[in-house]
Write a structure and sequence with these properties.
The complex is a heterotrimer of chains A (327), B (244) and C (308). By secondary structure, chain A is mostly helical. Chain A has helices spanning 11-29, 36-61, 70-85, 90-112, 117-135, 157-184, 186-196, 198-203, 208-234, 239-242, 246-258, 265-280, 285-301, 305-312, and strands at 147-148, 236-237. Chain A is globular. By secondary structure, chain C is mainly α. Chain C has one domain. In chain C, strand 1 and strand 2 form a beta hairpin. The chains are: A mainly alpha (327), B alpha/beta (244), C mainly alpha (308).
Chain lengths: 327, 244, 308
């Protein structure tokens, strides 16, 4: 007897997965029909989903509330600039750069993961700032001015747009699927045990450091891929934007509003954030101030986000991890 | 010795720690100026009950009245101002502050009344030389004396003392009980005491808890040792309702 | 070199004021306010509005702004932070990040993005200086600000050690339950501490506007500086905060001798080094052996100085 993984799932969950699969198929052929603007916007949406999913792994599952994920966005962008400058073709460079970022995250993890929660949040931020300062010393970056990834101009604009779109779509699907697998597996169970009670988890032999480290490195690579794709679509690299704390603020907003520590929440949060930006983005600063106020209201009155609202009505969490992990 | 007025009235009080009921639907009435010793094995719910009376632990169900006024909803600091003061388990002195500061804090934030830092020093002359020392460096007996003095300067009408003699030398215990004896007739006292002999000689009423319920309540002069021991281990009443 | 050192020390007074509020919130209320830097900018903006919009003199504007900031801190604690504190450590971080975003962009919407300064309103004081022997010029404004910082922190120290309110603050910070059993209302203490903390942030913001410029988006960087000073100096003691501020100021001033960008990086490096060193002490204490004995010696020495 062969067992498909979909068996044993709630029928609503099965429907969701089919929906996601068909959405993926539609999105894959969409550039053939959609306008260049739609393709660009969807690329941005995919990047947001990646950010939200990665930050949720960190904060929602490993309990690591990082305000410094921009370190990996900026570092990925910088590594790509350097590699392209050294003659590497830009698209493979995106992924090699992200892997290099993972090495930096591995090195950093020995330091930051030993900190208490509050220290961790601030120290990751300070490290991002320190890396930004160091990166802007590199003459190729020209200080705060930044640089263009001119090698990307070698491609026809349509070709470049399409490639980035498809890469973003593929990596998004990969990250969502990968985090699903990760959380379903041993790491997910261990991470939730740590999040619920770190001492108890340690006492039953879970290496809390290793689990956190694994998730920290994976989330950092994920953020680097997403960030570097974004920089590739923008073609320019500026330390101020690449290392801007707004990336972490966006991640936090999406995860909080969607539902922290749930699988589907960050994706919903990213969709909502994207929609808000499309509708109110023209209001500029006032829109961002509104985003801040919405974040406060969610944190104070709806800390479990939209998914929490859904659960409060007595419905099951879509694609829940809790049941599967026996929690 | 009591006036007949009811100082504390607890009705059907339930205290929970998560799923666990540490205090199970407990009712209790204590008269003004009565001196009560609360005994029971570890985990019987004594400390939870004391914390519920002081307002540190919420009543999941039931009511608490102080001299006829409902104080169930009052948080701990307001109960101090109403006259219920607890000296908690472990004394909980502010270790990096001086003894004088510890006393001043209670005097400044508690009720006004006869007890001041000066009168407390008269009642506990042994703390006078300690006044300017940090409370963290005191011996067990000294810490207990300061803790009781600190509770007194808040001018309680009901004084709750958790684990009075725990961790003290026999000589220090004698000293503490001598001081407490001087307070008879001036306030209601509820004392948690592990030493049965001590509890029986000091209190005019003995209450024994086991598994969150009152097992025994009576005059220590009348109760037999056996009755108390049985109650202590919850032997004779463990049938039926006490297991929820 | 010597001039940079002196400038760094004087700058430290400003950082210490900025950091003291953050440290007070962390030590007493156990609340990490990630919008602390934005509060400082808000204080500067309000003072600027009183000067430029209403036409008050600078000193009068300061005298009005600080109580307003204190009231704002009280309200923030009452309406936002108290509720956030019930949600563990995650919710305060999320809430104050949101607050920061709202403040930054709200100020941008109200006041625009151009840099503003109070420097133009204090006449010659912005550039007046004393000449010391050896050809070193000592700016008068930085000296006055440093002295103000010392007076403010000294007063705060006296309030915390000598008044009933201060005792209540320290008692609550040490053991909130025991404080409640002495009749102290922790919420009132917390609101008082938040009022002081936000007023201190406002004063720091005004300092910044006096000696340089402010923009609506300066807050996050100020928060980082405040944190660096707090961590370098050790949480919970005002003297430590002052020393931490001075250490940060000196690091930045000396780094600035190399290049302007290096100035801020030097501060970050000192912060990360101190944080790492302190963690290694704790780790060593856990590990046992000679390391633990060595660490215990140092940590004991540390905790004896300030309150934990």
């Amino acid at each position: 007897m062969t067992k498909t993984p979909l068996l044993g799932m709630a029928s609503a969950d099965r429907r969701l997965i089919w929906l996601a699969a068909s959405a993926l198929a539609v999105l894959a052929i969409l550039p053939a029909f959609g306008s260049a603007l739609a393709v660009d916007k969807l690329t941005y949406l995919f990047i947001l989903i990646m950010f939200a999913t990665m930050w949720n792994l960190l904060a929602g599952y490993a309990g690591l509330v990082s305000v410094g994920q921009q370190a990996f966005v900026g570092l990925g962008g910088y590594a790509m600039v350097r590699m392209v400058d050294a003659g590497l073709p830009p698209f493979p460079a995106i992924f090699i750069a992200a892997l290099c970022t993972g090495v930096v995250a591995w090195a950093m993890s020995w330091f930051v993961l030993r900190m208490k929660a509050g220290e961790f949040a601030i120290a990751t931020w300070v490290i991002a700032e320190a890396i930004r300062a160091m990166v802007s010393f590199d003459p190729i970056i020209q200080g705060e001015t930044g640089t263009s990834i001119t090698a990307l101009n070698a491609y026809a604009p349509e070709m470049r747009r399409l490639t980035i779109y498809l890469l973003a779509l593929a990596t998004t699907a990969l990250m969502v699927w990968g985090s699903w697998k990760l959380l379903q597996g041993r790491t997910g169970a261990e991470a939730q045990a740590i999040r619920d009670d770190e001492e108890a988890a340690a006492s039953v032999g879970i290496s809390t450091f290793q689990v956190k480290q694994r998730i920290y490195i994976l989330a950092s690579i994920g953020c680097a891929v997403a960030g570097t794709l974004w920089l590739a679509s923008a073609i320019t690299f500026q330390p101020r934007t690449g290392f801007g704390v707004q990336w972490s603020v966006f991640m936090l907003f999406m995860v909080l509003v969607g539902g922290i520590g749930t699988f589907i929440g960050p994706i919903l949060g990213a969709l909502l954030f994207f929609a808000l930006q499309e509708i109110f983005g023209d209001f500029g600063a006032w829109y961002l101030a509104g985003v801040g106020i919405v974040a406060i209201l969610f944190a104070l009155y709806l800390p479990r986000g939209i998914v929490g609202l859904w659960l409060d009505k007595g419905r099951d969490e879509p694609l829940t991890m809790r049941k599967r992990l026996g929690i | 010795m009591t006036t007949g007025k009811i100082a504390l009235l607890l009705v059907d009080a339930v205290g929970r720690h998560g799923q666990l009921q540490a205090v199970k639907s407990l009712s209790l009435s204590i008269a003004e100026n009565e001196v009560v010793a609360l005994i029971g094995a570890n985990g019987a719910g004594k400390t939870t009950l004391m914390r519920m009376l002081a307002g540190l632990h919420p009543l999941a169900e039931g009511r608490l009245a102080l001299f006829g006024n409902d104080v169930t909803a009052l948080p701990a600091h307001d109960r101090v101002k109403a006259g219920i003061v607890l000296s908690p388990e472990g004394r909980r002195l502010f270790g990096d502050m001086t003894v004088r500061e510890n006393l001043m804090i209670a005097a400044e934030n508690g009720r006004r009344g006869d007890w001041t830092v000066a009168t407390a020093c008269d009642a506990f002359p042994q703390i006078v030389p300690l006044l300017d020392r940090p409370a963290g460096g005191l011996s067990g007996g000294q810490r207990q004396a300061v803790a009781i003095a600190r509770a007194l300067v808040a001018n309680p009408s009901v004084l709750l003392l958790d684990e009075v003699s725990l961790g003290l030398s026999p000589a220090a215990v004698d000293g503490v009980y001598q001081s407490l004896a001087a307070l008879r007739g001036r306030m209601t006292m509820v004392v948690v005491e592990q030493d049965l002999t001590r509890a029986m000689s000091f209190a005019e009423r003995l209450i024994c808890m086991a598994e969150g319920v009152l097992e025994l309540d009576g005059n220590p002069a009348v109760l037999t040792r056996e009755e108390i021991t049985n109650a202590y281990f919850g032997i004779h009443k463990t049938t039926g309702a006490s297991h929820a | 070199m010597l001039e940079a050192l002196i400038q760094g020390i004087l700058l430290g007074g400003y950082y210490a004021v900025l950091a003291a509020g953050l440290s007070l919130m962390f030590g007493v209320v156990r609340f990490i306010n990630l919008a602390h830097g934005d509060m400082a900018v808000l204080g500067a903006m309000i003072a600027l509005w009183f000067v430029q919009g209403v036409g008050l003199s600078v000193s009068l504007a300061i005298a009005v702004t600080l109580p307003a900031m204190a009231a704002l801190g009280w309200l923030m604690q009452r309406l936002i932070f108290e509720r956030a504190l019930r949600g563990g450590f995650l919710i305060p971080i999320l809430t104050t990040i949101g607050l920061g975003a709202a403040l930054q962009n709200g100020m941008f919407g109200l006041f625009g993005s151009e840099t503003k300064s109070l420097g133009a309103h204090i006449g010659g004081l912005s550039w007046a200086s004393w000449e010391l022997p050896g050809g070193i010029f000592l700016g008068q404004l930085p000296v006055y600000m440093f002295l103000t910082a010392i007076v403010v922190l000294g007063t705060l120290h006296l309030v915390l050690t000598r008044t009933a309110f201060g005792r209540a603050v320290r008692a609550t910070a040490t053991d909130a339950d025991a404080a409640a059993l002495c009749g102290i209302d922790a919420r009132r203490v917390h609101r008082g501490a938040a009022a002081i903390a936000v007023a201190l942030a406002g004063l720091a913001g005004i300092f910044l506007a006096l000696r340089a410029q402010v923009t609506p988006f300066a807050g996050p960087m100020l928060l980082i500086f405040a944190f660096e000073a707090v961590v370098i100096g050790g949480i919970g003691s005002l003297r430590g905060t002052l020393l931490g501020g001075i250490a940060l100021g000196v690091a930045q001033a000396l780094g600035g001798l190399i290049s302007p960008q290096f100035s801020i990086l030097a501060g970050h490096v000192v912060f990360l080094t101190v944080l790492g060193w302190r963690m290694s002490q704790v780790a060593a204490a856990d590990r046992g052996g000679w390391r633990s004995a060595y660490a215990a010696l140092i940590l004991k020495h540390k905790t004896a100085g300030g309150k934990r």
